[in-house]
Design goal:
By secondary structure, the chain is an alpha/beta fold. The protein has 17 helices and eight strands. Strand 4, helix 7 and strand 5 form a beta-alpha-beta unit.
């Protein structure tokens, strides 16, 4: 008897699995369509780093790039035409699921240019242009959760555009994200516009937190007394999940209040917490720990392909997220007491996260320019 694929049972706990990867190869080969059935994938996300890997050096895009060159289009326009076509085709693949789930799942996310992370007006303009150009109800526009980005989120939601708020690290940034979503819906409802088809997720990052905080704990342990070292090091690999659980506590509070209920009465959809950066960076940690420990209602987990396969093979599925929320606050307090400035760490992670999208995006544009020059001479 073949064991059931654990990925196919996660949805029974109220969580959706989305894939953190997109390429034209995945679409035209039929593999993406197959993953909906074989792995229970219910959405897909992209970002500048993913598109850089997909497009740079891949001949499958050459004809479209050449067409852009012949039309005299700038490199940025050529990039957008490639990305938009992939996003539209992925949206079409997921559209039946979007319809079947009444807009709960079946979303495809595309991020605004990373250079706009601190530019409110530029983000709003880009989000509106992407939404109108893509023309799919199941596309989500990714906007970084910077202070400037959250102002844009509120206005973009009010305009009726689906939003994936990305690069969230601190619990406070998540809380501000949830309220930006609520205020956007309230503004739209006050203007007499429908709010029942607007969807949003708040992408809360995980493994990057442990990578950074683990190093800080190692430094503190090296300076501590022998009796304190073991205690400090015992916090390694635990902060990201604890931080996510505290955010989930705030989520449950915010979306159980009277203010939210007034929007529910008008058809509003809850803004689900989405777990991002879920591949385990430390080989000493269980490779699916950011899946197993955070399964619970009204959440999404975006997994890269290797984590999808690992989970399909050996995930142990249960509702850990609801089981021990009360201890998460205590753990974070203990880490702070040990000397880790978590607020500072989260602020640095946000800046580093923006840079990790800026660099591959610039590299992508440079590689496109080089390829355009090469193809133009053929």
């Amino acid at each position: 008897m073949v064991a059931a694929n654990p990925l196919l049972t996660i949805v029974d706990y109220g969580q959706s699995v989305w894939m953190d990867n997109l390429s034209r190869d995945l679409i035209v080969s039929g593999q993406l369509q197959a993953l909906l059935q074989s792995r229970g994938i219910r959405g897909i996300t992209s970002n500048p780093a993913i598109f850089q890997k997909a497009i740079a050096g891949n001949a499958i895009y050459d004809d479209a790039i050449l067409a852009g060159i012949k039309a005299g289009r700038p490199v940025m326009d050529i990039y957008e035409s490639l990305a938009f076509e992939d996003i539209q085709n992925a949206c079409d693949i997921f559209r039946p699921l979007y319809d079947e789930t009444d807009g709960l799942d079946g979303y495809v996310s595309i991020e605004v240019a990373p250079e706009l992370a601190r530019d409110t007006a530029g983000t709003i303009a880009a989000a509106q242009r992407y939404w109108e150009t893509l023309g799919r109800p199941n596309v989500m526009i990714k906007i970084p959760g910077t202070p400037e980005g959250l102002v844009a989120v509120e206005q973009v939601i009010a305009a009726g555009i689906n939003v994936n708020v990305t690069l969230l690290f601190s619990v406070q940034a998540y809380v501000e994200t949830a309220w930006a979503y609520i205020r956007g819906l309230e503004a739209r409802a006050a203007a007499g516009q429908p709010i029942d088809r607007i969807a949003s997720v708040a992408s809360f990052f995980l493994s990057r937190i442990d990578t950074k905080v683990d190093k800080l704990l190692e430094t503190l342990a090296a300076q501590a007394s022998p009796e304190e070292q073991a205690k400090i090091l015992s916090f390694q690999g635990k902060v990201a999940i604890a931080n996510a659980k505290v955010a989930y506590e705030r989520f449950r509070d915010i979306f159980a209040g009277e203010r939210w209920q007034m929007l529910v009465n008008q058809g509003a959809k809850v803004q689900r917490l989405l777990w991002a950066s879920t591949s385990t960076k430390n080989p000493q940690y269980r490779d699916v720990m950011y899946v197993e420990e955070l399964i619970g209602p009204d959440t999404v987990n975006t997994l890269p392909p290797e984590t999808i396969e690992a989970c399909a093979d050996h995930c142990q599925i249960s509702d850990h997220l609801l089981g021990d929320l009360s201890t998460a606050d205590d753990l974070l307090a203990a880490v702070s007491a040990a000397g880790v400035d978590l607020d500072q760490a989260m602020a640095e992670l946000l800046d580093e996260g923006i840079q990790k999208f800026v660099e591959p995006f610039n590299a992508l544009l440079a590689s496109l320019a080089a390829k355009a020059e090469q193809l133009a001479t053929v």
